[in-house]
Amino acid sequence: MRIVSAEVVVTSPGRNFVTLRITTEDGLSGLGDATLNGRELAVRAYLVEHVVPLLIGRDASAIEDTWQYLYRGAYWRRGPVTMAAIAAVDTALWDVKAKAAGMPLYQLLGGACRVGALAYGHASGRDLPELFDSIRAHLERGYRAIRVQTGVPGLGVVYGVAASVGGERYDYEPARRTALPVEEEWDTRAYLRHVPGVFEAVRAEFGPELPLLHDGHHRMTPVQAARLGKSLEPYDLFWLEDATPGEDQAALRLIRQHTTTPLAIGEVFNSVHDYQGLITERLIDYVRSAVTHTGGVTGMRRLLDFAGVYGIKSGIHGPTDISPVGMAAALHLDLAVHNFGIQEHMEHTARTLEVFRTSFTFADGLLHPSDAPGLGVELDDEMAGAFPYEAAYLPVNRLRDGTVHDW
Ligand code: GCO
Ligand code: MG
């Protein structure tokens, strides 16, 4: 089953997506997501200039060999651009293989371990009334686990808080179509003073059972994160995510020594090696990588199997900058791995779903990838062409004195 073509489609139905389509001599085609928020064209160039020429004529069924060929063969390993490009190839080849077998991908990965993947939605509010409305709206839509992000008194726009609440959508999209990145203002001490009271109020209003998550988005020092983890213990979080910047892995050791709040990290990681110490020392509870940024189904499976040996579970990254193709790949893995934890879910816009025809479903708080052969997602080229690329940037965050801070 030789590969005869590989094309990269960049489309922007409200936000940018990079998709690879691989077609074989038998006329089968597969899709892979290569979207890297705010740096989309770098992955496009990597694929078009350096990967597509190597794919033509290769055996589409040799997935592991192709993964190693692109990873070890490039000499320059890891990094988000390389690993997103490898992810797109890998995911597209799994899509092809599953279509050739006439099976949904999760069957090829070993079959379903559960009826669906528990999903968490993103609730947020600038103040408590807005936040409560947002949580209620998510519960009405069927969510059984909820991420809680809150405004902070005295600060303007805060990460993870929807610009308007009460309308049709509550999701938060950090990339904005501006000539330069938007600059936000941040004060960690104000945040630390405010957040425990918010969780106390949410527990008082919604009771002890609802799983609650929170994302610190890399903004704290290890000591600050340890303090937040401790102060949130009474509110029984499902996880505290990205408490400190991911590249400083030793920081997690300090946080772990001070709190029993479960920890999740890894959305900016791109290989199993980024987690080696975190997993073997059991410093985290959930791995947060995206299939799209971690070398695809093959890279993610390797990571999850390694994590599983240490009792660490999955929490696959699923914001709207993961395309429906990347999301579908995550859902097939969610069903097939034993150490599933939870799946992040931000619904894509109606316009995005006109470009990407999905078959996955959300009901009673659970996501299911569907039983369509392959990933179960098709790309409508005509619709994709109607939405050309538009530059968009993630924000830059500054402390009150102007110092650039982690965002
Ligand atoms: C999350 C993430 C996202 C990122 C985004 C950056 O937990 O979903 O923090 O919201 O900010 O993916 O591109
Ligand atoms: Mg996050």
TrEMBL record:
SUPFAM superfamilies: Enolase C-terminal domain-like, Enolase N-terminal domain-like
Family matches, as Gene3D superfamilies: Enolase-like C-terminal domain, Enolase-like, N-terminal domain
Pfam family, one: MR_MLE_C
A single GO BP: carbohydrate catabolic process
UniProt cross-references to InterPro entries, sorted A to Z: D-mannonate_dehydratase-like, DgoD-like, Enolase-like_C_sf, Enolase-like_N, Enolase_C-like, Mandelate_racemase_C, Mandelate_racemase_N_dom
Gene Ontology terms for molecular function: hydro-lyase activity; magnesium ion binding
Domain of life of the native organism: Bacteria
Residue ranges constituting the Mandelate racemase/muconate lactonizing enzyme C-terminal domain according to the UniProt record: 129-262
Full protein name: Mandelate racemase/muconate lactonizing protein
